[in-house]
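Fold it.
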Amino acid sequence: MSNEKSTILVKTFFDPTTFTAQHVLVDCETKLAAIIDPVLDFDPVSGRTRTDHAEQILQYGKDQGLSFKWILETHAHADHLSAANFLKQQTGAKVAIGRGITKVQAHFSPLFDFEPEFSIDGIQFDLLLDDGDQIELGSSLINTIATPGHTPACVTYQIADALFIGDTLFMPDYGSARTDFPGGDAAQLYHSVQKLYAFPDKTKMFLCHDYKTSNRDEFVWETTVGDQKRQNIHLRADTSEQEFVRSRNERDSGLNFPKLILPSLQINLRGGVFPPPAANGISYLKLPINLFGKP
């Protein structure tokens, strides 16, 4: 990928436990880099965290002589814990997310009974991004595109001929994001996807997840706008809003919640920081009973 000033390289690290694609975006001219959607390893049985996947990214940066400038979250993930804070401490990079994170914080902070001093203004992140905002990566610019629908905080990062779309869409044979989380909306997701479909067909799309299908044996996290428009099983270019909203809502009504949603949100709404320790010095995650209305 390239623009007039620089060449952009993408290196992806895939975590098969959470099916997450973590992307490292490199400005080859300056060796400045951004990390998109990093994973903190977590064992829900023991409550222990590890930094194996994050350290793979750090080692890659060391091997390639990179300087990490940004850690970019596409949204507040409900299926994995974010390694943003660990990587920030290791690299000095700044953590950015869409400004819609404040809506997600406002909803979940009382449900998780966060400490009274927890702020719902997004101060836990270094930068809140609005639609149309640009941030620099060396001689390149990363553009922010608000793409809510899966969550209010969802954004897509566009640089050169590539889009990093988070959970907005999956591979064409797997479809689109669910929209039944608080603040999610199928009609909103439809219009967000139309923004992405307005890009040239050859534009690359880098996804946050892949779950494979019965028709393929390998994980894939890169596709194109054209392939999505022609082949996405939920939302092609000729799919009407009414048709998509109806089918998306029907599908969502039968879905279970992600296995890691409770620990993930308690960490990710804090920018990857653990909850403050109790009087005994131990940091705890809460397990609310019957928080959601279905199993």
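The first helix runs from residue 52 to 64.
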